[in-house]
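can u do me a favor
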């Protein structure tokens, strides 16, 4: 049995510059996915054309659309790139350019050319859960996301906010505070 060795992180996309290369269906899907979790993300897109849905999303968010062929100088200032072109040769070329500039890159549907994957995400207020299948089955990640969206109650955010307020009233060092919070929250998950 294989093991998922990916390290999950939660990025503040409003503090980063993201580039999406492509303007077709896959690029629009990636844009929608990013905006669902990070509606204030700084995203620029470069493509020779854009779907109407992409233009509509861009008009409602901080998205810059540049309608022309991709150029390597489009990478300037970017920390993360998503490549969603219909040209494998161009996609691999962009991947290598990103690596030369130390930029994280995801070439859609091409796991060997990905520094990161865009997994399933469940959001309930301040609680966010990311699901990864190590790039093996996005459909499974989607189904797990749907399961957890139904299984996790909406009131979990209320619990988080109450615990945050309580945490701010605790006295003592970090270890003492963690011990009190651990004692308080051990009943959240029923152990079998």
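np, heres the sequence
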């Amino acid at each position: 049995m294989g093991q998922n060795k990916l390290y999950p992180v939660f990025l503040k996309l409003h503090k980063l510059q993201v580039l999406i290369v492509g303007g077709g269906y896959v690029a629009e899907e990636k844009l929608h996915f990013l905006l669902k979790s990070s509606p204030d993300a700084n995203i620029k897109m470069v493509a020779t054309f854009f779907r109407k849905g992409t233009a509509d999303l861009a008009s409602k968010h901080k998205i810059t659309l540049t309608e022309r062929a991709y150029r390597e100088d489009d990478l300037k200032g970017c920390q993360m790139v998503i490549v969603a072109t219909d040209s494998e040769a161009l996609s691999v070329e962009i991947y290598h350019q990103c690596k030369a500039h130390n930029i994280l890159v995801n070439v859609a549907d091409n796991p060997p050319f990905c520094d990161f994957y865009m997994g399933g995400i469940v959001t309930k207020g301040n609680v966010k859960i990311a699901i990864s299948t190590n790039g093996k089955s996005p459909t499974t990640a989607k189904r797990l996301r749907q399961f957890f969206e139904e299984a996790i109650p909406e009131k979990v955010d209320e619990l988080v906010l109450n615990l945050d307020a309580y945490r701010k009233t605790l006295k003592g060092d970090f270890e003492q505070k963690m011990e009190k919070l651990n004692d308080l929250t051990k009943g959240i998950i029923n152990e079998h």
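The helical segments are 25-37, 52-60, 88-100, 138-151, 156-169, 174-185. hope that helps!!
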